[in-house]
Amino acid sequence: MQPGRHPDRSSAHRLRAVLATGTLAALLTLSGCGAGDSSDSSKSAAGDDAKYAAPRAERGDAAAGAADQGSAESSSAEKKKPSALSTPHVIRKASLSVEVKSVPKAVATARAAVESAGGLVASESTERLDATHEASHIVLRVPQGEYDAVLQELAGGGKLLSRTTTAKDVTDQVVDVESRIATQRASVIRVRKLMDRADKLVDVVTLEGELSNRQAELESLLAQQESLKDRTTLATITLSLSEPESPSNSKDDDPGFLDALGGGWHAFVTMVRWIAMAVGAAAPFLAAAAGLLLLGRLLRTWLARRRVPQEPQVSRPEEQAPAAPEAPPAP
Length: 331
Hints:
- This protein has helices at residues 7-80, 103-116, 147-155, 171-197, 201-233, 247-250, 257-307, 317-320; strands at 90-99, 120-128, 134-143, 159-169, 234-242.
- β2 (120-128) and β3 (134-143) form a beta hairpin.
- The protein is built from eight helices and five strands, in the order αβαββαβααβααα.
- The protein has 331 residues and is α+β, with helices and mostly antiparallel strands.
- α4 packs antiparallel against α5 (201-233).
- The longest helix has 74 residues, at 7-80.
- The N and C termini lie far apart (261 Å).
- 65% of the residues lie in helices and 15% in strands.
């Protein structure tokens, strides 16, 4: 034993070194097992992910395909839906009666309002009621989108007396006409193809007659379609403009003596005029009747003279000798 070194202390150091070495070996073993287990678990997890990833992908593709198919079907259904049903076709009409201060100015204002909205003046009729008053009747055509604005502007141009509006939905009629036009066009094309393949003259003549009939019906349908398009594209506004009466004419005064005298004189003059007209109308007939009466009297006189003969007068002696005068009586 060396001097200065304690035997118990050296054994304690060796024991601590052995314990530390055993602990380190145990930690290394545990870490290796944990790494292996973690690698195995990661491998199994990766395998499981790979195992279920394919079915999930297949299901996702199937769902995506179903979604695409559904969207395709919905889009095809939307394409098959007629476009005419998406937009309603309405025929709008309105009638306005407005009292304005000046009819010519109101007519110019209405014309400017309609033309600025993209419409037109279909017809205009103006008449003069008296020396100072006029009245006008105008038919205006305006686009459907500007119908309400133009109607409000025209109604606010003066004193509104009356207003009437109507709206008629003709969407079904428009769709029906379009369908019939498509059918008729296809029918015309079929007849033309038959004419191209016809060899006999009888068949050609028959097909030409049938083609003429179908083309005439197609033209009629096209005219109906154009009329419906015009009436549904442009609304019709009928505007009646008038001026207010003057205050002197609008007063409702009670009639006086002069009014009664004027009315009586007017009635008297009217009666005399009608009598004169009656006499003038009957004068030719009265003159003819007077002439016939005079002619008849002359004819009767002449006939009477012809019927009575004139006898010759013979002088007799006793008639020629004068009678003796009688003697006067004695006093």
